[in-house]
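Minutes, project check-in
Item: structure for the 528-residue chain
Input as provided by the requester:
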Amino acid sequence: MPRPRKADTAKPANGAAKTDFKQTLWAAADKLRKHIDAAEYKHVVLGLIFLKYISDRFLALHEALERDELADPEDRDEYEAESVFWVPKEARWPELQKDAKKPEIGTRIDAAMDIVEKANPTLKGVLPKDYGRASLDKQMLGELVDLIGTIELVARREGENGTPQDILGHVYEYFLGQFAAAEGKKGGQFYTPECVVKLLVEMIEPYKGRVYDPCCGSGGMFVQSEKFVEAHNGRRIDLSIFGQESNHTTWKLARMNLAIRGIEANLGDRNADSFHDDLHKDLKADFILANPPFNDSDWGGERRRDDVRWAYGVPPAGNANLAWVQHFIHHLAPNGVAGFVLANGSMTSNQSGEGEIRKAIVEADLVDCMVALPGQLFFTTQIPVCLWFLSRNKAGGKVGPGKTLRDRRGEVLFIDARKLGRMVDRVRRELTDIPGGDIDAITKTYHAWRTWGGEYEDKPGFCKSVTLEDIRAYGHVLAPGRYVGTAEAGEGGEPFELHFRRIKERLLAEFENRVVLEASVRKVLGDL
């Protein structure tokens, strides 16, 4: 029988350099793009890294148990007690690496994945098992196996390179971001930029309770929520995680991403569409974090015209934005809060009844804060997006350690963060995550505004606290640009000065074109 022990993170079977191996791994994985699509090689590489990691952890504990005269290194209970996956001998990495140069390496990996799934029921149906297919170059695959074999994914001692989950977690975050960039729009569907996820989590502060993401992608919201709890000296077991994902391969990726970090989550027993197959119908969540598909026009709304979730109006079949908002509200607990990403049109559109739905939500006093973000944050699109923050109960009260919220009924905070961020390359921007940086500026403003005794003040051009009466005067438009500046906002929430300058430049260009056209016509007439 196993005895309670501190997890032994002894040096794994293969010694490895502790250099920055992420770029090296990516360069090797990138070679596969000559042979398969980016969407496919994502699963090839991440599957192998997952297998290497659980093998390393198993072998590290196996070695420690061999040194313990009172322990049995072949007792599965010893591994379960330390939350280490049981890896049968034929699936352990050193055994696989022996066959890296053989043509059958693909089928060997498939067999190993199958063996690991059968030995660990929580991984059933999760691991990729398509390495033996003819389209996957076996020489390149063998080279990748050899390279991954040189990487140490488990820390030798607690505190060296961080915990094992942190090391592999950093690898996964890096790879997910790189894959999203490589795949463009398709890749961004499963990955929300880390800076946006962190901003959402820091805003709503999920200390304790049920966290829900009905379009969870690769699980980034859950990972960041647990990081938040740990960073604030909370307990991971105080969070219960619920999620859902419609894409089958992304659902499996999320389960792998959470499994490597030891995060327990209820993602349902299958992939499913939250609108048409809600796997958590009775869930009332304390925290909702989500990044639903932008402006989804193919969400099957015509099949859901009569639905209990549409308490504020039937959403248009041609755009799912306000369907998502109402889905979130429906799943909020009496004191629940939600933070989510939506396209900017959700703040201003009056098409197909969207204005009336937004009006009903505002008048129900559910909107707590609106944040306009800069463009180019996402891999999927360069258009700017916004963050919605909803609260079921704005009356105030104690939340989290040593914090009391004030009564905010009838008030909404608007933050215009469109000028924040820095360019990390030619096409993509990120919000800075440093003390006093962009994420700090936004979150501290929100917390000062909603916290009892907080030192909040309006800052022209950045933030303003307004009343429902103010919002009614603007036709229930929620674009921060309409409220934070001193001048009337232009079309679509654009500041008046920018709006006017853009129209002026366009008009002057038209004048120039007219002069050129007139000269051309006069010349033609003169030649007749």
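Outcome recorded: The domain at 21-183 is CATH 1.20.1260.30 (Ferritin).
No further action items on this chain.
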